[in-house]
Amino acid sequence: MGAKTNAILNILAAVLLGLFIWWAEENLDGYMIQILNLIAVNIILALSLNLIYGFTGLFSLGHAGFMAIGAYVCSILILAPEQKEMLFILEPAYDWVQSAQAPFFVAVVAGGLAAALFGVLVGIPLLRLGDDYLGMATLGFAEIVRIFAINLPRVTNGALGFKGIPDHANLWWNFGWCLFTLYVIIRLIRSNSGNVFKAIRDDETAAKAMGIDVFRQKLLSFALGAFFAGVGGALLGSLVATIDPKMFTFVLTFNVLMIVVTGGLGSITGSVLAGIAITVLLEWLRFVENPVYFGDWELPGIPGMRMVVFSLALIFMILFRREGFMGKREFSWSWAVGRFFKKAGRHGI
Amino acid sequence: MTWAMFVQHALNGLTLGSLYALIAIGYTMVYGILRLINFAHSEIFMLGAYFVLWGLTLFYLPWFVAIVVAIVVTAAIGILVDRVAYRPLRDAPRISALISAIGVSFFLQNLTIVAFGALPREVYRPAWLENPILMGEVRVLPLTLFVPTLSFLLMLGLVWVVYKTKPGLGMRAISKDIETSYIMGVPVNRIISLTFGIGSALAAASGIMWALRYPQLQPVMGSIPGFKAFIAAVFGGIGSIPGAVVGGIMLGVIEIMAVAFFPDLAGYRDAFAFILLIVILLIKPTGLMGARLEDKV
User: Fold this and answer.
1) B94 touching A (Cβ < 8 Å)
2) Core-most of A45, A290, B6, B42, by most CB within 10 Å?
3) How much is the pLDDT for B297?
């Protein structure tokens, strides 16, 4: 199948998604729209972690930290000055925090860039570490971000965080960013950089011996992943309207890691599909934690049950299907068309 | 700062440090043998404390019995976690076992929330632990003396097991080379189970003393001490038991002293340990006493 047909089919799919969003905005209730929004944000986050861990093999547990940076930067830029005056009750905000203003798109980009900057700053020292140490060190970084967020009340309003963040992040923005992330990462993975990343993942020593500047390439992947994690955090902040340091704990990283592992490390299609499935499941299982009423009789909710189910799912996944549902396979139009016309399809890239 | 206050802070640091050291031993033993960061270890620590509470309030066990039962049950859970979640992944890439460990950690934490609720629970301390002892101008709680002493005895016992008994010889052999140990007839899986059992029992002891020292239980109480103990293990040199002890005690003393001398930085207390981790990994990843573990090509 030619590149031209592929491009046409891609544009067609994007148009269909647009039509679906247009339909959804008119016809679905707020709760369903919220789930769709979360799906888009989770796909962005999963793709960014998949780039760092799945494609480049850098086991990073610092996603919550990058998301926090993105969310705080974006929120400060889109909160109105009057809102900030009301919010900062512990201590008044610094002047530059008080007066910073930007339109939503610029604010999200700024959140992503700030996260990428921190990605470079922590990446330069940390990316020399081996896989499990890198995981612990980046987890430490995420915790440090959180502790600073609590202790810098003139920037972040301390433990109280921000409330009433303007809800600019609607379906168009979220899915727009989602498609952009998808486009950038697919292009990157199919380029020479993608091959270099995979080479580093599969055998770092061999990659080095082939003359690859391993450190530089790792840093590139890490910073780009941090950028999209920051974007995801920024969108999430605007979506849920409230952020505080408690939101950005390790659980947040755990959820993203679960999506990436379930979908398949090194499979973009896997991250997208698992992003949809796990977001829906996470929301659906909320019912387990809330009480259910049958007339007068109350079945009490079980707090904690949701994460019990999900942590078990992750353990089963890693024990019995380590490669995830998709492995390293990818969706392609020729495969889909082949399937459709019962021809033997080609797999993967 | 008066001399008496300094001694008091030093003793408090020693208490906190020996609690870290007991947890750190579990991390370092498992890492030494399997090259696995046992992420669930902090939850084992938390379970030890919860089981004592359970024994006391549900089964009305006397203190001493409740503590022994809790330590045994916790050790059994540590072994079970290895059997179910880590053993099938021995031949898998190392990160797979780490992800499994993260899953187990969340599972145990949330199972505790399901079983006991997420709200903090009070622990009632025996009365004799409440009355401070006066030594000159230094006022100390009995626990401040009791915890380091007991920890020290436990560590002595551990050193005896590792360096003077046959299973201990097996542990040292496996940490040098697991494949050769198989060939030489070391019962590898049994020794690994024993390692998990000992590490978990020590973590449970630490958790119980922690609950007496800071008498409030929460399902998430293990995360921060667990992570700090891991940092202590890295600080001391991961894989080395004396290193874990020294690292744990130093981390505890430094933490208490830092807050005592710079009260303004109290809010950054937890960040301090993480910064220490990053600095150590960058400057001397083998820690104070660790042997070099090189990746083979």
Assistant:
1) yes
2) A45
3) 46
Nearest CB to A205 within list B104, B230, B297: B297
Residue with tokens 């009750």: A89
* Binary contact (B107, A311; C-beta < 8 A): yes
CB A44 within 8 A of CB A232: yes
Confidence of residue B293 (pLDDT cuts 50, 70, 90): low
Question: Torsions phi, psi of A172, nearest 5?
Answer: -65, -50
Answer whether residue B177 shows pLDDT above 90: no
For residue B39, the distance in angstroms to the closest alpha carbon of chain A comes to 10
Within-domain flag for A10: no
Q: Is A9 contained in some domain?
A: no
In b/e form, how buried is each residue of B249-266, taking b as 16+ CB within 10 angstroms? bbbbbbbbebbbeeeeee
Cα A121 from chain centre: 20
Q: Which of A119, A121, A118, A68 is nearest to A223 (CA)?
A: A119
Please report whether residue A284 resides in a domain.
Answer: yes
Structural domains for chain B: 3-283 (1.10.3470)
| pLDDT greater than 60 at residue B148 | yes
Q: Which tens digits make up the pLDDT trace of B211-259?
A: 988 888 888 899 899 999 999 999 988 888 889 999 999 999 999 998 8
Mark the ranges of chain A whose per-residue pLDDT is less than 70: 1, 292, 294-299, 341-349
Chain A partners of B94 at a C-beta cutoff of 8 Å? 131-132
The 10 Å Cβ neighbour count of residue A117 is 15
What is the per-residue pLDDT across A152-203, written as a single tens digit (0 to 9) for each? 888 888 888 898 888 888 899 999 999 999 999 999 999 999 999 999 999 9
Q: What is the CATH number of the domain that holds A210?
A: 1.10.3470
For the beta carbon of residue B139, count every other beta carbon within 10 angstroms. Answer: 13
Does residue A157 form part of some domain?
Answer: yes
**Per-residue confidence band for B292, with pLDDT thresholds at 50, 70 and 90:** low
Residue A338, CA distances (Å) to A53, A70, A342, B123 in order = 31, 42, 6, 65
Q: Do B274 and A311 touch (CB under 8 A)?
A: no
- Strand-pairing partners, residue B134, are B139
DSSP codes of every residue in A223-255: HHHHHHHHHHHHHHHHHHS-B-GGGGSHHHHHH
Phi first, then psi, for residue B133 (nearest 5°) are: -100, 140
Q: Which residues of B touch A151 (CB under 8 A)?
A: 267-268
Is the Cβ–Cβ distance between B8 and B138 less than 8 Å?
A: yes
A315 → closest Cβ in B104, B114, B275: B104
Q: Give the structural domain span for A123.
A: 29-291+299-340
